[in-house]
Design brief:
The complex is a heterotrimer of chains A (337), B (134) and C (110). Helices cover 48% and strands 21% of the residues of chain A. Chain A has 337 residues and is an alpha+beta fold. Chain A has 2 domains: 92 residues, Methyltransferase, Methionine Synthase (B12-binding Domains), Chain A, domain 1, CATH 1.10.1240.30; 222 residues, PPM-type phosphatase domain (Phosphatase 2c, domain 1). The longest helix of chain A has 49 residues. The relative contact order of chain A is 0.11. By secondary structure, chain B is an alpha+beta fold. Chain B has a single domain, classed as Heat Shock Protein 90, CATH 3.30.565.10. In chain B, 37% of the residues lie in helices and 30% in strands. Chain C has a 6-stranded mixed beta sheet with strand order 1-2-3-4-5-6, with helices on one face. Helices cover 34% and strands 41% of the residues of chain C. Chain C has one domain: Transcription Regulator spoIIAA (2-Layer Sandwich), CATH 3.30.750.24. Classes of the chains: A alpha+beta (337), B alpha+beta (134), C alpha/beta (110). Chains A and B meet through helix 3 and helix 4 of A and helix 2 and helix 4 of B. Chain B: Pfam families: HATPase_c. Chain B: InterPro entries: HATPase_C_sf (IPR036890), HATPase_dom (IPR003594). Chain B: It comes from Oceanobacillus bengalensis. Chain B: This is Anti-sigma regulatory factor.
Chain lengths: 337, 134, 110
């Protein structure tokens, strides 16, 4: 650091002398460049004041004593700024390290929880799931049974970030261990509830939907655990109806029970699943009404399911100035034939 | 002024005296203006810690010399409550600093060498040295 | 946006008046003040939501852990004057079935 300063003393002195004589903008521009190089080299503010004192002493040896003292006073006043600056640098480095750890964790989450949209006879599936921060607290999982049946889990862990993501992995591996095809949706939720209740902190809980679609019968069976209602679009009548079952969020009571309902889908009918990141979207403090979401879907109903969810997401992303406040997940199942 | 001396810190104004001795010794040893100010600030911080948390203690000053360098060693000694978690108080951004960059991490930065001995209920001794830049 | 948590304790009853928004930033403060009350045996706690304009799921988490704590400590908690939006959250999550929750109704409480 001393070398940098000595090299700079001459240059600084020249600039200062020039400026005192001419008050030209050129010197000011040059000192701006110099100041940036000081920052790059971690030169502290008190050193710069000292540089100034030395330059002035050399340029004007008979400078007034009062001025000289005032500069030493200023130097003293800069010491704590220097310390705060060093602390800030260090915290910034730590933050960069943390961020990179989190992004590794986020990539691991993607790998661990990754799921692919399966091909189901006669069913068109659209999915959008975008985290508000690096880690997604919303979760969805598709699985395809031997008889062509579709299993769909959608969950929203309260709390965001890393704890939520860890909780997701637990859910996923529990579901994976079930003989899913032979289990009713409500039994799956009851079983997951016990796992969650035993393993999460008291202020954590999960809202969840478990649904199964049987292409041979065109029937959707579903159970809800405290989750936002889904919507059924009846293509014939061109109407939307709320779809849900009563049931407590997972993780609150050890022996909560759930019920199952079913719905028969006709051609062009849709079922729209979402998380509260969709309904909690806020536009300038105003809450988005679900009706707005449904109107959009109605407007795009002739499009493939993926295009519908993409357009709805783009609309709300724009409405929120491209900064999501909550994770956003929407899944549409559309019956093709 | 002797090469070895101390001040007792009891009132807030004692901090000023502690700073002043540090600055004078630093000047005499040939520290440059910036380092004089840094040493004074470090001593100020140590004395203030004594005043705030231990109520009473001393700041000891000693000129240290080796074959090829000399410096100023400052020791802050108190019989106060001691520090329960050293790694916590040495952490940047810990509450006593509140983003002001001060506190013990600040002292460590201002000086070249830093050591802390503490026992809960018995007190704390902080020894810190700065060498004259040649 | 901030949240003020005003606690008035009157023998076995505690009145907690909330004003502001309950979200991920303000929930820790709420939890810090609410949870100790639930740990007092036989304490009856009433939480007044009339000044609350927004609550996210983190806020709901605080009330879930408070509920669990009342069960462990035989205290009780009652939430009153919830606006429609916040009441809806308790309804959808199924929590109204297991908690004492009352919405605000013009001209009096439900």
């Amino acid at each position: 650091m001393d070398k940098v300063l000595n090299k700079n003393l001459e240059e600084y002195k020249e600039l200062l002398k020039n400026f005192i004589n001419t008050q030209d903008e050129r010197s000011l521009y040059k000192v701006e460049r110099m100041s940036k190089s000081f920052i790059r080299n971690s030169v502290l503010p008190e050193e710069i004041v000292n540089l100034h004192i030395q330059a002035m002493d050399e340029l004007y040896p008979d400078i007034a004593n009062s001025f000289h003292h005032s500069m030493n006073f200023l130097l003293e006043a800069m010491i704590s700024y220097g310390l705060a600056h060093q602390e800030f640098q260090l915290l910034r480095e730590q933050q960069i390290a943390l961020k990179s750890e989190i992004s590794i964790a986020a990539r691991m989450q993607e790998t661990l929880l990754g799921t692919e949209k399966p091909n189901i006879d006669g069913l068109d599936i659209g999915v959008v799931s975008v985290p508000a921060h690096q880690m997604n607290g919303d979760y969805y999982h598709f699985l395809k049974g031997n008889d062509g049946m579709l299993g769909l889990a959608i969950a929203d862990v309260i709390g965001k970030g890393i704890p939520a993501a860890l909780c997701m992995s637990m859910i996923k591996y529990s579901i994976d261990s079930y003989p899913e095809e032979s289990m009713r949706t409500n039994v799956i939720l009851e079983s997951l509830n016990r796992v969650v209740e035993r393993n999460v902190e008291s202020n954590m809980f999960i809202t969840m939907i478990y649904a199964q679609y049987f292409p041979d019968e065109s029937i959707l069976r579903y159970s809800f655990a405290g989750h936002e209602p889904a919507y059924y679009f009846n293509a014939m009548k061109n109407t939307f109806e709320e779809v849900n079952t009563k049931g407590l969020v997972l993780g609150v009571l050890p022996n909560a029970t759930y019920s199952q309902k079913e719905l028969e889908l006709e051609k062009d009918d849709m079922v729209i699943f979402l998380t509260d990141g969709v309904t909690e979207c806020r536009d300038d403090g105003r809450f988005i009404k679900i009706q707005e979401v449904l109107n959009l879907i109605e407007q795009y109903k002739h499009l493939p399911a993926q295009d519908i969810v993409d357009r709805v997401f783009k609309y709300f992303e724009k409405l929120q100035d491209f900064t999501l406040r909550d994770d956003f997940t929407m899944i549409i199942l559309k019956k093709e034939v | 002024m002797t090469p070895q001396s101390f001040v007792t810190v009891y009132k807030e104004w004692d901090i000023v005296g502690a700073r002043q001795i540090a600055r004078e010794m630093a000047k005499e040893l040939g520290f440059n203006v910036v380092d004089q100010a840094r040493i004074a600030t470090a001593v100020s911080e140590l004395a203030r810690n004594i005043y705030l948390y231990a109520k009473e203690g001393q700041i000891h000053y000693e000129v240290v010399e080796t074959m090829n360098k000399k410096g100023l060693c400052v020791r802050a000694v108190d019989t106060g409550p001691g520090i329960k978690d050293i790694s916590l108080v040495m952490q940047d951004g810990y509450s006593t600093s509140g983003g002001l960059g001060a506190g013990l991490p600040g002292v460590k930065r201002l000086m070249d060498e830093f050591d802390i001995q503490t026992k809960v209920g018995e007190g704390t001794t902080i020894t810190t040295t700065k060498w004259v830049r040649l | 946006m901030n949240l003020t948590v005003n606690v008035e304790q009157n023998k076995a009853r505690a009145f907690v008046k909330l004003t502001g928004e309950i979200d991920v930033y303000t929930a820790p403060n709420l939890k810090e003040k609410l949870l100790p009350l639930t740990k007092i045996q036989n304490q009856v706690i009433e939480v007044d939501f009339s000044g609350v304009s927004y609550m996210d799921s983190t806020g709901l988490g605080v009330f879930v852990s408070a509920l669990k704590s009342t069960k462990e400590n035989s205290s009780s908690m009652r939430l009153v004057h919830l606006d429609e939006r916040i009441y809806r959250v308790f309804r959808i999550t199924g929590l109204i079935e297991i908690m004492d929750v009352h919405r605000a109704i013009k001209g009096g409480e439900e």
